[in-house]
Task: structure prediction
Amino acid sequence: MNKLPDEVYEQEEVDLLIRQCSKRCPTGLRNRALIATLYSTGLRLAEALALRPVDVDLGLGTVHVRKGKGGKPRRSGIFEFAAPHIATWIEARERLGVGELAPLFCTLEGGKVGQAYIRHLLPRLGKKAGIPKRIHAHGFRHSHAAELDKAGLRLTHISRQLGHARPSTTDTYLQRVSAAGLVEAVREVA
Result:
């Protein structure tokens, strides 16, 4: 079986994707916030969709993943970039009368948003934005890891942020997603 290449999105591409979502329609606001959260936290799609409003602290810049892979909880940081998108969605959610116990990224009635919906949404947004890369939820995780690596964070910190059980998993992960960065670095030296 041929494995598809790992995708890494630049901040400008994430901005383009977000701009494809409505600024007025509640589902557009939700989708903007979800994309910003995925990129800004490196959460797995299931982890992001399981968040509750109480799990996000925009003041501290953290998200609380209650059940990560293997059922393990963790706190992860969130890029400031996502805060206005999340705050706008939370306000819209409150106007809709959705209760605090509903998932943060819920339907307009407070139900769960399915992973399949997001898996169909993201490629459509990518096509609409004119982005030639394959757009998928895990690509935001790759992008987040690459951003942290580029910023010089220690491997153990990146590992904890992503919820990996071992730093060796993160190292393997970064070797796959940072290939473009390696080529860039070599070109700068030459």
Notes: The first strand starts at residue 56 and ends at 57. The radius of gyration is 17 Å. The mean pLDDT is 90.
